[in-house]
UniProtKB/TrEMBL annotation:
Active site (record annotation): C114, H224
Protein name: folate gamma-glutamyl hydrolase
A Pfam entry, by short name: Peptidase_C26
InterPro entries: Class_I_gatase-like (IPR029062), Pept_C26_g-glut_hydrolase (IPR015527), Peptidase_C26 (IPR011697)
Location(s), subcellular: Secreted, Extracellular space
Any one GO MF annotation of this record: gamma-glutamyl-peptidase activity
Organism: Mastacembelus armatus
Recorded family membership: Belongs to the peptidase C26 family.
Cross-referenced PROSITE patterns: GATASE_TYPE_1, PEPTIDASE_C26_GGH
Amino acid sequence: TSLYLFCNVICHFSFLGVLAQENLPEDQFAHGSSYIAASYIKYLEGAGARVVPIRINRTEEEYTKIFYSVNGLLLPGGNVDIQTSQFTRAAKIFYDLALKANDAGDYFPIWGTCQGFQQLSVLTSNKNLLTLTDTKAVALPLTLTPAAQSSRLFRSFPKDVLQSLADENITSNFHSWSLSLQNYSRNAKLKRFYKVLSTNTDGKKEFISTMEAYRYPFYAVQWHPEKSPFEWIDKPGMVHSIAAIRACFYTASFFVSEAMKNHHSFSNLVEEERALIYNFSPVFRGIHAVFVQNYYFD
C-alpha cells in the first residue's frame, strides 16, 4: 500500500471526479437513476486524467471517502433543479469539503460547466440568482475583462488561443439561465468570492461567462468547451473549428494541472480500479442526440 501511495504521489497521477445527475425524463436510453455525458469523461481523459464517476444518492461518508481519493471535481452541464436535486446535495457536500480542505492548505480544485457554473453560484450565494437569457444554441466570442490576462485560468493560454476566444464565435452556449452581471454585482457573497474573467450578452442582458474564485481553485464556465471535439448535434452554436478544439484542450489541461497540486489518492489499487470509469460502458444514443454517448448508473 505504501509503495502504491508513493508511486501515485511521485508519478503525479490525477484522478478527477465527475458528478452524475438524475436521468432526463425523456431519455429513452436511460437505465438506473443517473447519467454522465461521455463528452465530459473524454474531455478530462484527453488532458491526461483518469476519471472517477461520482454517483448520486450516496451517503456523506461515502462522498467524504471519495473526496480524499480524487484530486479534483467537475460539475457538468445538464438539466436538474440546482436547489433540490440529488446532484445539488452531492455538489454541496463536495463544495463544503473543498472549502475546508483549501482553508487547511490542501489544494482541491472544482470546475463547473454550464449547469455546474450555475450550481457553484447557488452554493456560494445560498440562493438562486439566475436570469432567463436567449442563449439556447449560440456560439459567441468571450468579452474578456481586464482581470482575464492575469487570471490563473487564462494566463497560461497561448496568446493565439486567447485571441480566438475573444474574436471568434467559438464558445458553445446551450443554456436558458444565466448569472447576470447585475445580479452578481448586487450580491456581496458572489462579488467577494468570484473574479469575473469574461462576460457575454444575448443582446439584452449581460451575463457572466467565465469566472474563478479569488481564494480558492474554483473555476466556472457558462459555455461548453467539451462539446467541440465530442458532440455532433446539428444545431447553431456547435463549433468544430481547430480554434474551438484548442480552447477545449487548454481548459481541460489547465484543470488537470490544478488537480496535480494535491496528493489525494486511493488507499490501494483494488479500490482505485473499482472506482474508475473503465468499469462502465457508454451507451451510443445516436450521432445527433444531445449527448452522443452517456454513461448510466444505478
